[in-house]
Amino acid sequence: MRAYVARFIDGAARSGAVAVPDDPEALIDQLADAAVGLSQRELENAIAYATVDDLAIDESDVQQIFRQKRQAIRKSGLLEFVDTGGLSLDDVGGLARLKGWLHRRRHALGRAGAGFGLAVPKGVLLTGVPGCGKSWSARCVAAAWGLPLVRLDMGRIFDSLVGASEAHMRNAIAVSEAVSPCILWIDEIEKGLSRPGQQVGDSGVSLRVLGTFLTWLQEKTSPVFVVATANDILHLPPEIVRKGRFDAVFFVDLPDEDERRAILDIHLKRVDRADDPLDLDALVELSGSSDGLDRGGMTGAEIAAWVDDAMLYAFERSLDGEAPDLSHEDFVRALDEMPILAKIRDKDIAALRGWATAHAQPAS
Questions:
Q1: The pTM is what?
Q2: What does the pLDDT look like over 320-351, one tens digit per residue?
Q3: Which CATH class is domain 257-345?
Q4: Where is the AAA+ ATPase domain (predicted)?
Q5: What stretches of the chain adopt beta strand conformation (E)?
């Protein structure tokens, strides 16, 4: 595959009609890595289309190859391509330890890491409190690594026909390997892989699907990095967190004060209100716990919704002729109407933290 890409770029450079980098070696590696899983005909079509489009061969052509792979994803019926354009790990507020871990493994899927002798990373399991950034992190790491994000819906795996569920899992694995290198995102994995004894009336199908997935995860050599998320971790089968499965298991807790500040800043920028005359310290305090607990306030998802609700109040005021800036009072009014997860499910969160103490490392 690399030899074909190198010959194509060399021929384009000799023609004089196509712009090619002076030193194309890095680009050749990028294009060849992106083309893993494509037939030569598919690769020829993708590169030819990308070249004719702007009479240049550059990094943007990697995306054309990824677009070719999306066709295979859609045809599978089991996987979904997720657009991550414009995102980066900077769009994740807090979670410094998780982001550092991901940053160190960024190049392990590439040629440089393999040449150095790095093992192909298996993936990471993100557990913890709902709404605190697990799924968002999956989107952002794919964008930061420049890899396509492929989502596996566990609900599509299971079928009433005997043997079909296991076949669906094997097919999903085969497609993900065909479009690799990629990030395979399995959201709320516990919904499909529950603890032994909880498979009611499925004749052990869940156990067999689990076995197929875990065997592949432990033995795979393809550059598919799995990001699995789980909210109801108390129902996860113990095999999932056993050493040798995922490279790491992280627990994502409620954000602390500094993380709430970072999340607020991200969402104020999202609605283009970062320059409004707001007391950010006061908002951070307002988003926290009434009893002073450092991690007893809003989730990241709640902060995002809080900003959106405050914007509605600001808009209503602007219709009455008031200044269009967001105000502290807008946030107070929005908070009065919000149920806060940390208050509603405090016992459940305590149980999650107890599990995490023995099975996971903190993401923050």
A1: 0.82
A2: 888 889 999 999 999 998 999 999 999 999 99
A3: mainly alpha
A4: 120-256
A5: 79-82, 123-128, 149-152, 182-186, 224-230, 248-252, 361-362
